[in-house]
Specification:
With 177 residues, this protein is of the alpha+beta class. It contains 5 helices and 4 strands. A 4-stranded mixed β-sheet has the order 2-1-3-4, with helices on both faces. The longest helix is centred in the N-terminal third of the chain and has 51 residues. The chain is rod-shaped and about 110 Å long. The mean pLDDT is 89.
């Protein structure tokens, strides 16, 4: 004949029953703490995965973002370039100033940048681009920009046109727009 737990408990002394109940409460408390730790660990784990994914996405976005000339005037300096057709890169701070107003006081400028370091530029391409500066000598500039990730970028305040080849119609429309 097997005794039920209640039967065993009835034959125990009062102290033994109290000790048994205390052990049961301690076991329940340990289980609650273990479950709470597990829930907390899962929460932190999920949060860690979310943060890691966000950081990975941000890093990927930064690494794959195209570097283009600025279209804003933020952080510009009050200085003009030495000419409208340059053979050396125009500093970014000066480009930003030209977007504000050409030659320090005229209408907003347009800058045509080209990159023949990362891209193969066909013969005559720079001369064709220089033709736009000659057609609009009061506010159009031409300069190389070897750090950008496109072959040709035409900028004006708040706008940019990127091209793989010279497109006279699109460039003229952008300049006049």
């Amino acid at each position: 004949m097997t005794e039920t737990p209640e039967g065993v408990e009835e034959r125990m002394s009062r102290k033994e029953r109290q000790r048994l109940r205390a052990q049961e409460r301690e076991a329940e408390a340990r289980n609650r703490r273990r479950k709470a730790l597990l829930r907390r660990g899962v929460r932190w784990g999920v949060l860690g995965v979310i943060v890691a994914l966000g950081a990975g996405w941000l890093g990927y976005s930064i690494a794959t973002a195209k570097r283009l000339p600025s279209t804003s005037m933020a952080d510009h300096i009050e200085q003009s370039p030495p000419g409208h057709i340059l053979t050396t890169p125009m500093p970014i701070a000066i480009q930003k100033h030209m977007l504000e107003h050409a030659d320090g006081g005229g209408r907003p400028g347009v800058i045509i940048n080209y990159n023949c370091v990362k891209f193969r530029c066909p013969a005559g391409m720079i001369d064709r681009l220089a033709g736009f500066v000659r057609a609009y000598p009061e506010f159009v500039y031409l300069a190389p920009y070897p750090d950008m990730d496109v072959k040709i970028a035409v900028t004006r305040l708040g706008k940019i046109l990127t091209l793989d080849d010279v497109d006279d119609t699109r460039i003229r429309a952008f300049i006049e727009g």
